[in-house]
Structures are given as C-alpha cells and as structure tokens.
Amino acid sequence: MKTMLTVVVAVLLALGAVACVEVKVGVGDDAETEEAAADPPAAINQLSSEEAEAGFQSLFDGESLDHWRGFKLDQVPAGWSVADGVVHFVPPEGDDAGPRADLITRDQYRSFEFRFDWAVTPGGNSGVMFHVSEDAPASYSTGPEFQILDDGGHRDGQRMETSAASNYALHARQGGELVPLGEFNTSALRVEGAAVTHWLNGEKVVEYNLWDDEWKELVAASKFASMPGYGMMETGHIALQDHGNEIWFRNLRILVLPD
What we know:
With 259 residues, the protein is mostly beta strands. It has helices spanning 2-15, 49-54, 213-220; strands at 23-25, 32-36, 57-58, 68-70, 80-83, 86-89, 103-105, 112-120, 125-132, 145-149, 185-192, 195-200, 203-209, 237-240, 247-256. The radius of gyration is 17 Å and the shape is globular. It starts with a helix and ends with a strand.
C-alpha cells in the first residue's frame, strides 16, 4: 500500500507543475461561458488575474487550513493535512488518531461560486457539499453533493446520477470528460439563489433549482427522503467529504455572489 501511495503522490506532484484550466464561470457579461480564460493561468493555489479582478477569495494558500475545520469540531479532523501544496486526506488508522469528520469552511455561504481541483486514487469516492448545517447529524443530511469519484473503478460510476460531477443521486451529469486517473480535475460549483450549476473541466454538466416543487418531489422519491431539511437550507458551510478514501484538493477559491 505504501508503495502504491508513493507512486500516486509522485505523479500528483509532477502534475502540480501543469497549469489548471481556468473556466470563466459567472465572470464577465456571459455568466455561463465555457471558454477558457484568456489570461495566463495562475500558479497553483494562487488567484488568476481574472479571479482577483472578479473578487474571488482564496480558501487555501497551499500551506495551512486556516479557513477550514471539522464538522462540529473546532479543529482540523484526523486524516486531513496539507502536504506539498495540496489538501490531502488519508483515512487514519488506530483508535488514537483523533476524531474524524468532513472538512468544512469556517464561514457560511448563500450564493457563491466555488472553484476547486480534485484527484482520487483507484476506486476513490468523496464529494463537495454546500449549504451544510451543523444542526443536522452529518454534512450529507442537509447539503446537496457535487460527487467526486473514480468513475471507472467504483460502482457508482456505472450510473450518471451517481457519477463524478453529478448532483449525487438526484441529477445526472450531462456530458463532460474526466482527466486520466491520478491527474487533477478542475471543477466549479455555482449557486445563485435557487439556481445551481456544476462544471467539470471547462464544461457545464449539471443544472438544477433548489426548493421548488420539482426539487421537493425529487428528494421525496430518493434516499434523502428520511433526512428532514435535505437541500432546503438557504445558507451554510461548504464541506469536503471524508468518505474513507484517499483524496487530494487544491486551488480552493470562492466568489461571494449578491443574494
């Protein structure tokens, strides 16, 4: 296992020198353009000139998790760390490892655009949830999920409703291509009031509305029917999921949008 992880980490670090795709989601006159940014890509974990001008804020500087803590915790949960400029989760071993939890933003957000890069190991599974309330038992009890997955190595990848970049178990990904396993996918989650869009490697792949009758009916017919308040919060934390699999994140940045 250690040999495999060493190889994967080495690949990820080597790929760290490769520029990320900077997608102009919600910037400029066309809020849903699929064109790449014209200006040169920024260094890893730094805002591009386009993002800085638009008002994005960095949630990770490559060195600390000051903007993050554990779900219902004051500290960073066990298994989460910063290594070589990425947020890294490895499932902790032993009873003395400390409390486990999803990693959540210290601040709460209503309308926003959250950009992030992610990479998984074979069969890996995680997610990014939003409007997460700590009054509920778990992050997934209230927060809709941008699915993170190795589609080719996990059974959830066999259904588009649970594949990578889907609105997990509710809205299927429409199109979009994952990069090869071990490389970083570039993603964006945009929430404007009730309107939500998911972006994967420069392409809009999911679009839906919260809170209306269609949303309520969809949730009522799903596995989330037993979770009061699922997808009904109007504000909350953003969460990076501890799903028991190794995961990497980088380039975490957010643009707060007007309500």
